[in-house]
Each structure stands twice: as C-alpha cells, then as structure tokens.
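quick one, 141 residues, struct below
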Amino acid sequence: MTQHWAFWAFLSAGFAALTAIFGKVGVAGVNSDLATLIRTVIIFVVLMGIVTATGQWQAPSAINAKTWIFLALSGLATGASWIAYYRALKLGNASQVAPVDKLSIVLVVIFGVIFLGEKVSAVHWAAVSLIAAGAIMLAVF
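---
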C-alpha cells in the first residue's frame, strides 16, 4: 500500500487539511511571515532527521545541474506559496482560503498540459472545471 502513489496523495491531502487548521490557529498570534519561518525551520529539522536516520544523504556534486535548478525553482515557488498562504490565513477564514489554494489543482493540470505535454481527456477537463467551480463557490458564497 505504501508503494502506491494514491496512499501518499491521500496522506498529503489529510496533512494539507491539518496545515490549514493548525496554521490558522498558529498565525493568529504572530506575523504571517514569522509564522512561515517557524514552520519552515520545523520542516527543515524534521527532514534533516529523516534523511539522516534513513541514510539518504548524497554528495551535492552527485546531483546534476538540471536537478539543482529545478529543485531551487520548486523551493522558491514553495516559499512564495507558503508566504501567500499564511498571509491569506491571517486575513481570512481557513474554510475560504484553503479552497482557493486548491485551485492549484486546476493550474497543475493546465501547466502539465502546456509544459509537460500531458494528455487530459474530456472527462478530466470536466472534472477540473468542477473543481474550479467548487473552489470558487466555497470561497465566495
């Protein structure tokens, strides 16, 4: 079960939901940028422990330049996303912020088609449209 992508995807969704709830409570008493920094430091420490405990370290020189560039870009995008997310949580309701944040699903499909050449069926486009409509309805109404 732990070797299937769906297991980890559902686990990710559950933790993402907890992120919104815990983040909303946590950001109430601190600046949103500082909250993001605290969260990032905790993630850093936990991942250092995981990589160390599982022996997954490798020499930085063994990682190719393309990997470094795209992981750096991903890190920058993640940081920008977290900063924006925590500012939104500071200002709005978690039940409105989280659905808008999940419009990233729609954008991932669009970007996957444009930049990665992924194929999406008409049924999947319909589902993406429903996700977009649902997220907007949750946020606005």
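The chain has a mean pLDDT of 94.
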